[in-house]
């Protein structure tokens, strides 16, 4: 288990290093067993917008935040909030998680809502 986590963190570090070199605005995704979190971080490492399944109005609609439907809702919310702030182009930082399941659902929902990766 520890080796698996170390490998994920190593992948995340490599990705973030490359994005920092490029000066890219990034959509950072984190998942836990119970929740999904998304943040858009500018090139100066400042959080522009964030969304998660811990927000009260999301919890009313979804309930349990550790499923694909909740992840898709977070993807849509983060894209809408980003467009309000004037962010349309981002790099996708999946934090070393596989592009599968909840991470994929969040990314596809954000794309459908108008965010460009």
Describe the structure.
The chain has 117 residues and is an alpha+beta fold. The protein has a single domain, classed as Nucleotidyltransferase, domain 5 (2-Layer Sandwich), CATH 3.30.420.100. Helices cover 49% and strands 18% of the residues. The chain is built from four helices and four strands, in the order αβββααβα. It has a four-stranded mixed beta sheet. A hairpin with a 5-residue loop joins strand 2 and strand 3. Helix 3 packs parallel to helix 4. It is globular. The termini are far apart.
Main attributes?
117 residues, alpha+beta, four-stranded mixed sheet, 4 helices
Biggest sheet character: 4 strands, mixed
Shape verdict: globular
Class per helix and strand makeup:
alpha+beta
Helix content: 40-55%
Low-confidence stretches: none
Under the CATH scheme, which architecture would be assigned? 2-Layer Sandwich
Strands in their spatial order, largest beta sheet: 3-2-1-4
Give the DSSP E fraction (strand runs of 2 or more residues). Answer: 15-25%
What is the mean pLDDT? 94
Overview in brief:
It is built from four helices and four strands, in the order H-E-E-E-H-H-E-H. It has 117 residues and is of the alpha+beta class.
List strands and helices in order, with pairings.
Elements: H1 2-22, E1 26-31, E2 36-41, E3 47-52, H2 56-62, H3 68-85, E4 91-93, H4 102-112
Parallel strand pairs: 1-4
Antiparallel strand pairs: 1-2, 2-3
């Amino acid at each position: 288990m520890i080796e698996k986590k170390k490998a994920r963190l190593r992948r995340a570090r490599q990705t973030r290093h490359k994005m920092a070199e490029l000066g890219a605005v990034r959509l950072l995704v984190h998942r836990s067993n119970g929740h999904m979190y998304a943040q858009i971080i500018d090139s100066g490492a400042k959080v522009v917008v964030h969304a998660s399944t811990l927000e009260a109005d999301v919890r009313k609609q979804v309930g349990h935040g550790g499923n694909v439907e909740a992840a898709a809702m977070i993807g849509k919310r983060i894209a809408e909030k980003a467009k309000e702030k004037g962010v349309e182009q981002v790099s996708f930082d999946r934090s070393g998680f596989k592009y599968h399941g909840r991470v994929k659902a969040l990314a596809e929902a954000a794309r459908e809502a108008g965010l460009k990766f």
